[in-house]
Amino acid sequence: MATTAAEILLPTVVRWKNGELFEGTVCPSEHRRLHIEMLHRQTSRLIELAAAFRNDKGSLVWITRKREDHYLLGGGSGSQTWLEDLLALAAHHHAKNRELFISPVQRSAPGPGKRFVLGSQWLWVDVDDPQRFPALWAFFNEPTKSLPHGRLPHLVIETGGIPAEQSDHDETQIRGGLHAFFALDRLLPAVTLITDDGAKYTNPAVSIPDDSDALNYADRQTGEMLEGRVINEIERANLRLIHALGFRYDAYGKQIPTVADPACSHRHQPMRLAGSRHGETGRYARVIYADFTAPPFSYETLVGDLPDPRDQPAIREHRSGDSNFDDDDPYKRIPILDAYERLTGWEGSTRHKVRCPHRDHPDNDPSCDLKSDYFICRSCSAAGGIYQLASAVLGGPTKHLRGDAFKSAKNLVIQVFGEL
Ligand SMILES: [Zn+2]
Fold first, then answer.
1. Which of 225, 331, 336, 392 is packed most tightly, with the most Cβ within 10 A?
2. Tens of pLDDT along 240-293?
3. What angle do CA 20, 145, 245 make, to 5 degrees?
4. What DSSP designation does 76 have?
5. Distance 417 CA to ligand 1 centre (A)
6. How far is the CA of 362 from the centre of ligand 1 (A)?
């Protein structure tokens, strides 16, 4: 691996395809190459490379996620230049001091949302706190019935998100923010839908009408609308790993992961690219370890014997007209408590019942619950997310919210929260 003089060098350990072990330092662009080649040398469809910058408040602002030219084919597509193309795009943004991210999954069409994801040959976990590393190493090395050598990941990235101590210039020390990636021997599809009579559909067609909040699934061949149990397979498998690493119970009996971050289980999220700089700390992300030799895991041996968490967010019952949970609409990330307080002007609470937000329901003895991402009135059964809440405030429907009623609700949300 060639490096140019006077450039930053970052340590790594690589086991090459011929079994040879490299232990040394290489420049950031070589880290980018290792990371992308490892993840996507077999990917036949689209890979997202994403760039972002930090605004004055220090938060990350995406600039490429809606640009089609940032979704490129992988090494399994037959393209001879796939890796150079991705690296050139990465180098372009890196030169402009932007933060870089790569998606571990493959997409059927360019676009940031979950519905564009076809499947993944990778599962992954994110562990930020160095005090949790011993639990991570123990999990990697713990033998199982089918894996006598444990579950060693194929790729480990340090994200550079933990600042370097001023006295400590030892770059070989791992400070925190670790992403561990496990290769699978087949593409795990993004979605399985099982209808009430047991028919199974892999990656059904998804549509999101412009004039509603609904998410519709349909048979790709016949166009028939589908209802039933929707399994988000990648999230489900990642959550099994996340919970197997460790969890505690909160006061309500909910399982809270204590080692890995459940927010990183989502399939549509790009992950920080090695050989790029973290905007908060100025430190480089790097490949700690990449193993091109180890055979991939089968789904069954890697996560097949791990239990699902008790509250399973990756599986839900879908009925037609249900609210679209998978969208990456920024308004849907507003906690329902904030939405309630701003849209009604009343004080809210997630601990005790609050007044129903519906204009036509004078709820003097409060009967409405605010959960993290939805509200539900136990008396008039108005319920839903932020748009249903806005519709309720306007005296509109909350079930099958579409057409003009949806547009009015959306306008109110934009009026109150501004353009996001
Ligand atoms: Zn009500």
1. 392
2. 999 999 999 988 788 999 999 998 999 999 999 999 999 988 899 999 999 999
3. 80
4. G
5. 23
6. 8
